[in-house]
Every structure is written in structure tokens, then in C-alpha cells.
Amino acid sequence: MWSLLKKFFHVKGETDQAQLPQEILIGELPGWYEKKAKTQWDAFLAEIKELQHSLDNKKSEVEEAIDALQNATLPNPSISVKEKQYLEGNKSSYIMGTSQFLKSLAIPDEHGQILQYPGIFTQNLEKYAKATIRPYQILQQFLAHEGRDVAIAIKGIEDVHVALAENIKSSNMLSIKAAKEAIAQLSHRNSKKNELKNSIAALEKELAAAKEELAKHEKTLKALQASHPYKCLLELKAEREVLQKRLKDSKDNVLQQFSILDDALQKFGRVYFEDEGLISHYLLDPAEALERDQDIKMGAILAKIKDSIGKGQIVMKEKKRAKIVSMLESLSGEALKASREVIVEIKNKILDLDENIKGNPALQKEQVLKDAIGHHQHLISSSQRKYENLQKDYGEINIGPLKEQVACLVRETININITLKENPPGD
């Protein structure tokens, strides 16, 4: 009794073990399935070889029938020469078309080509029939028996291909082909998914490194900005801004003064040509012209303009005249000299400050750090966009349904239950 129970449990255990699904890595699946399906393919190929032998025999029968047709004598040799020529032309055409058709007949031994071959044969047979129907009909009028023998032999070839098509249909080959195609598709998608996963992991490391470098540079910059040299740099820049504002105000004041004198300067310049160049410069940019006018030649010109207005040599409306004369009285040579000295002094101070700013050790360090921070910020932004795109592409690859389809096809074609496991990244 105990031995019977032991035998029962032992057999049951072995059966359960046999029914357990095999765990297969998707990356190894194509080669694994190819080996498992080879037994069925070899058996199928053996049947195909038998059909190829039958096809060779049928081709030989066609060739014998063609020879008989070629050498056949007319039952009625008394036909006209024209009729003989007509017969020979159509006989040659029929024999040539049949011979060419025979050359296209060979069952391939490659898996995919065998499955497609019956359809290709049907197309070739239809082309052959269309090309030879007319010559065959003519032959029936003269050599009916021999022509019919060729047609019967061709029908034998067709029967072999019908048997081949039925053999393929009844076999598992079409399902195996579908399984291989699904496996190839799954393998490709899985490889693409792993490539994306590896790229995402690598990009995560790059982002982490870039963020670490950015934090380091920001920390260094913060420390620099708290240092004594940097505070001195800020003071120098602040002082420069104050001087820049004073310079602008001084130049604006000169511009405003000479804008009132614009009309008088133009009229005077048209009369006194020797002063035209200097006057033109003052009309274009009064502050710059005053800065270059070291000898304050404009003071003498303004005195002449005032004198000319007083003598009535420069004519203008009373209101404008009074405004111009008032400005001329305030713009003496000494006043122009004082304005020029202010502008020159401020500009010289700015130049001195620029030298001090340029020589401050914190300036170059700050620029290097800001460039590094900008570079890493751009790198992080660019990598973040790329990372999001990779995540999106990765999320769109869903191989779950295809895994189920492949497992089902494997079970149907080679009768093995499998569980598919994705290859770890990097494989």
C-alpha cells in the first residue's frame, strides 16, 4: 500500500514539474525557439523533399511530352506550305513558353520562401496559361494528341503544387512563421526598451554630476561674494555708477545749452566758413566737441555770434533771439572751460576706477564662476528635456500584450509553456 502511494505521489510530482512554465529571457528567446522548432521544420522539410522528387518526375514527363510534340508528324501531311509555317510558328512558341515555365519550377529549402512558393507558382502558372493559350488552341487543330499530352503533364505539375499548398496548410509552419515574426518584434521592442533604460540611467548620473558641480560653483561664488576683495569690488562699481551718472548729467547739460544755440550756430557757420568744421562738430555732439576743444575756441565763436546778433547780421524772431542772447551771455569762454574740466575730470576718474576694477582679484574669479554656473545650468536644462523625452519614449513601449501573444504562439506551435522575463539593463 505504501509503495503504491509513494508511486502515485512520485508520478504526480513529475507531471506537475513537466507542466511548470519555463522561464526564458526575451533576449535569448529567438535562438531558443529556433532550436525547439527545428524538429518540426526538419520533419516538414523531409515531406517537401518527397514532393520535390515528385515535381522532378512530373517535369521529366513534361519534357518527354515536349520532345514528342517537337518530333510529331502530321496526321494529314497534305496541308499547304502556309499552314505548315503557321503550325511550326505556334508549336515553337508553345514549346518555348513551356520550357521557360519549367525553369521557374524549384521548391526552395528556406523556411520563408517555401511558405510563399505556392502563391508564386500560381502566379507563374497563370502567366504561362495566358501566354500559351493561343498556340495551344492552334496545335489542337493539327497535333491534338501531342499537345494534349503536354497539357496533361502540366496538370501533373499543378497537382504537386496543390499537394504542397495543402501540406503547408495542414502543417504548423505558418503558425511557426507567425511565432518567429512575433518573437522578432518582441525582441526588437525589448532591446529598444533596454536601450532607453540604459540611456535614462546614464543621463540620471550625468544630471546628478552636473547638479553637484553647479552646487559646488554656487557655493564658491557665495563665499567669494562674502570676501573682502569682492566687497571692495562692489564699492568700486558703485562709485563708478555714481560717476557715470554725473558724467551723463554734465553732458546732458551741455547738450541742452547748445540745443538752444543750434539755429544761431547754423546761420553763423554759413557765413564764416573758417569756423564751419568746429561748429559742425558742436552741432553733432556738443559734449564730445567740448571735450576735444582744449583751447575753448568755441568761446570766441559764441562771442562773435553774440556780436553779430547785436548788429543785426543774424536775423531771427524776437522771442528766440532773446533766449539765444541769454544763453550766450551765460556761456562765456570761462564757463565752457569749467564745463569741459568737469567732464574730463569725471572721465579720468572713471578710467582710474576701471583700472582698479580690472585689477581686483575677485573680478576674474567671479566671471569664471558665473560662466561655469551658466554652463552647468544650460547643461542641466538640456539634459532635463532629454531625460523627459526618454522617459516618455520608455513609457510608450508596452510589451505586455506582445509577451502574452508570443507565449500563446509558442505553446500552440511547440507545446511548451513559457514565462518571458525581460533582460536586465546592460545585457
Brief digest:
The protein starts with a helix and ends in a 6-residue tail after the last strand.
What profile does the largest beta sheet have? 2 strands, parallel
Percent of sequence in beta strands = under 5%
Return residue spans where pLDDT drops below 50 for at least 5 consecutive residues: 1-18
Strand order within the widest beta sheet: 1-2
In N-to-C order, the SSE pattern is: HEHHHHHHHHHHHHHHE
Give the termini separation.
53 Å
- Mean residue pLDDT: 88
Rg over C-alpha atoms, rounded to the nearest angstrom: 52 Å
**Continuous helix count:** 15
Q: Quickly give the structural class.
A: mainly alpha
- The general outline is elongated
Q: Classify the helix fraction into a percent range.
A: over 70%
> What is the number of beta strands?
2
Outline the secondary-structure elements.
Blueprint: H1 2-19, E1 22-25, H2 29-71, H3 81-103, H4 111-142, H5 144-170, H6 173-225, H7 228-260, H8 262-271, H9 276-284, H10 286-292, H11 297-310, H12 318-330, H13 333-359, H14 361-396, H15 400-414, E2 418-421
Parallel strand pairs: 1-2
Q: What do these coordinates show?
A:
The protein contains 15 helices and two strands. By secondary structure, it is mainly alpha-helical. Among the domains are: about 20-185, no CATH class; about 225-360. Helix 2 (about 30-70) runs antiparallel to helix 3 and helix 7 crosses helix 10 (about 285-290). The protein is elongated, with a radius of gyration of 52 Å. The two termini are about 55 Å apart. Mean pLDDT is about 90; it is low at about 1-20.
Structure keywords:
single chain; 427 residues; mainly alpha; two-stranded parallel sheet; 15 helices; 2 strands; 84% helix; 2% strand; disordered N terminus
